[in-house]
Write a structure and sequence with these properties.
668 residues; binds NADP nicotinamide-adenine-dinucleotide phosphate; alpha/beta
């Protein structure tokens, strides 16, 4: 991973590429100083080559109205801030040229044919030959401007179902002219862009092409077609082939946390065998070990990581220092990165709230060392304690249970969420590194907090809400904590009260074995890594569900029922629940629980769900002891601070908890 790569006219200092990730900062020129600081930290952290978020070459290429564009010399000085900042730290940076095609969320979108994407309400216009030629010129002009702005190269975005991918596949390309037909015609647009960019930007300019290796949609390409396209692009003069997996409209998960690590490396290895140019592996690579393994086995020449470098800017340096345990690992939750990008919010990272906020959330060394008590070693407390100690404070962290992690300990028990353990491991390391005094199995008393500390942070978290349903004390009733943390035995037929994030997680826990193998995962989703069938889609082989489940809520069952909280991950949960025949019911009134089961009223009729267990996933209540509060619930003593679930239990999530902890610690 640390070996340099000689491209002939330039050398990359190691094999790590920071993959393109739209942050929201690239769309407005006044945010470029923030974008520069964000990339500078990653370059300082050792990454060899950074690829920017997608930048359009003309307006029709926009992903959303007024998206970042580089097509006049007025744009150059803004981009120069970014390239200078990266070069200052010895890194290289390529601009990604993105034409969204029919994914453009505006009425001016274009594509190979006028076929609407299932994820976009706008129908694109089929490009005329003249429009294709002028778009090729626009790619070339932007590449030339990118060179003037100091970029070391460009990445031409040809995967994920964007315009060039739309031209490459019969799914969208129904043309009968020279830009359609067989794969030679369908790749012609991409090839022409590469040739034009090369002419405009010169030989000593890195051209990366991102090609879809596995479309994961009907009408996608086969292995032969993908290899033919890759060879044509190589012959056109690319320096590096980057790889993409799955169109955005694909209904196969490709990057969420339940996708096994490096699940798609075999597809990369296959294309590498037929090319001479270096090939980049991507998707669900999040540790140095897995990156090394891919490179050592010759499956790829470079590895691309985007989210892992949001989570830890120093990933490469830490790996180089042989301290992988100190890396803040991306847990592939999407909650602060892709979920934000899709709701047009600035991207950040759940485990690293400084990501994309490098100039705003700054951990300065304290001038006045204080004695700080943090009570509760859940996510909020851990974040606050470790940042405060990093700043030079004397921090004691009290935890009533015998281990740190709080709600994350339970989350990590859910199949497909094993990655959450990495955050606990990271905080264990941070406690050690920053010198936090950790007191496990220790309930702090009000008196000792009052006496011994300058600042007291209450991060005591939440406890499961027990709804007032007659019979809720029946032995068949369990809280989610009893099931996930204490591993209370659960029967075959189960009613789950509450269909929020934890209700959905509970379904996954009760339905699946932990840590399924890659083969089982590929079977479950029907993925053929060799693309011997179009798009790499084969018939899925589902395992029969391990239990019969009822997932219940009082509000009506809307479209989002069964999705959990994540915008970009919800459909994966819903699909799992649907194919496991989970009964999802809204408009439920809970009447009582007894030996017969759970008595409800549903659609104005009484019903009994004859279940072995009823599991309460009905939200949480704050644990707010240890301080005196005013009528608004705020501590009366200004030395006390309340964060995380102890502050507000509703819609608590780890993203808010970690951010709130870090922000408080930065102020103390
Ligand atoms: P939640 O999302 O607020 O859901 C609580 C559920 O309980 C709702 O379905 C609610 O539906 C029901 N409920 C509330 N009060 C009730 C009562 N008195 N009696 C019966 N049912 C009641 O809470 P959660 O599932 O406990 O999750 C807690 C937090 O963790 C959330 O913010 C969630 O986003 C986060 N989380 C995130 C993930 C993730 O993967 N990102 C996973 C798990 C949890 P009705 O009121 O309609 O009955
Ligand atoms: Fe990874 Fe989650 Fe951070 Fe995104 S928000 S970079 S998925 S840890």
């Amino acid at each position: 991973m640390l070996a340099p790569l000689d491209l002939g006219f330039t050398t990359l200092r190691n094999r790590v590429v920071m993959g393109s990730m739209h942050t929201g900062l690239e769309d407005r020129f006044w945010n470029y100083p923030k974008l520069a600081a964000y990339f500078a930290e990653r370059a300082k952290g050792g990454v060899a080559l950074i690829i920017t978020g997608g930048i359009a070459m003309n307006r029709r290429a926009w992903l959303a109205p007024a998206a970042g564009t580089l097509n006049t010399s007025l744009d150059v000085p803004h981009h120069r801030k970014v390239t200078d900042a990266v070069h200052e730290h010895g890194g290289k940076i390529a601009l990604q040229l993105l034409h969204a095609g029919r994914y453009g969320y505006h009425p001016f979108s274009v594509s190979a044919s006028a076929i609407k994407a299932p994820i976009n309400p706008f129908t694109p216009k089929a490009m005329s030959e003249g429009e294709i030629l002028s778009t090729i010129d626009d790619f070339a002009k932007s590449a030339e401007l990118a060179r003037r702005a100091g970029y070391d190269g460009v990445e031409i975005m040809g995967s994920e179902g964007y315009l060039l991918n739309q031209f490459l596949c019969k799914r969208v390309n129904k043309r009968t002219d020279q830009w359609g037909g067989d794969i030679h015609g369908r790749v012609k647009f991409g090839v022409s862009v590469v040739e034009a960019v090369r002419r405009a930007a010169g030989r000593d300019f890195i051209i990366i092409y991102r090609l879809s290796l596995l479309d994961l949609v009907e009408g996608g390409n086969t292995r032969d077609e993908i290899e033919t396209a890759a060879k044509a692009l190589e012959a056109a003069g690319i320096d590096i082939l980057n790889t993409g997996i799955g169109w955005h409209e694909a209904r196969i998960p490709t990057i969420v946390t339940s996708v096994p690590r490096a699940a798609f490396r075999a597809a990369t290895a296959q294309i590498k065998r037929v090319l001479k140019v270096p090939v980049v592996a991507s998707n669900r690579i999040n540790t140095p070990e897995i990156a090394e393994d891919i490179l050592a086995k010759g499956d790829a020449d470079l590895v691309s990581m985007a989210r892992p470098l949001l989570a830890d800017a120093d990933f490469v340096n830490k790996a180089a220092a042989a301290k992988p345990e100190s890396i803040n690992t991306c847990i592939a939750c999407n909650q602060a990165c892709l979920d934000h990008a899709f709701s047009l919010e600035r991207v950040s990272c759940l485990v690293n709230p400084r990501a994309c906020h490098e100039t705003e959330l700054v951990y300065l060394r304290t001038q006045r060392k204080k004695r700080i008590a943090v009570v509760g070693a859940g996510m909020a407390g851990l974040s606050c304690a470790t940042v405060a100690a990093e700043r030079g404070h004397d921090v004691t962290l009290f935890e009533a249970s015998s281990k740190i992690g709080g709600q994350f300990v339970m989350a990590a028990a859910v199949p497909g969420k094993e990655e959450f353990r990495e955050t606990i491991r990271y905080f264990e390391h941070e406690i050690e590194r920053t010198g936090v005094k950790l007191e496990l199995s220790r309930r702090a008393t009000k008196e000792e907090l009052d006496r011994g500390f300058d600042e007291i942070v209450i991060a005591t978290g939440v406890k499961p809400r027990v709804p007032k349903i007659p019979g809720v004390g029946h032995p068949k009733v369990l809280t989610y904590a009893q099931v996930l943390a204490d591993r209370a035995p659960v029967g075959q037929k189960v009613a789950i009260i509450g269909a929020g994030g934890i209700g959905v997680d509970m379904c996954e826990f009760l339905l699946h074995e932990p840590e399924i193998s890659l083969d089982a995962w590929l079977d479950e989703w029907g993925v053929d890594l060799t693309s011997s069938v179009p798009g790499g889609l084969r018939e899925p082989k589902h395992q029969p569900p391990r239990r019969e489940l009822w997932l219940l809520q009082r509000k009506p069952a809307g479209k989002r029922m069964g999705t959990g909280p994540g915008r970009t991950t919800g459909w994966v949960h819903k699909r799992v629940l649907e194919r496991s025949n989970v009964h999802m019911m809204g408009d439920v009134e809970y009447v009582r629980i007894d030996d017969e089961g759970l008595h409800i009223r549903h659609e104005d009729a009484p019903r009994v769900l004859a279940v072995d267990n009823v599991i309460l996933c009905a939200g949480q209540e704050s644990v707010r002891e240890l301080f005196s509060a005013d009528e608004r619930g705020r501590p009366t003593d200004p030395r006390f601070h309340v964060i995380g679930g102890a502050d507000v239990a509703t819609e608590l999530d780890a993203k808010r908890a970690i951010k709130q902890g870090a922000e408080l610690a930065a102020r103390l």
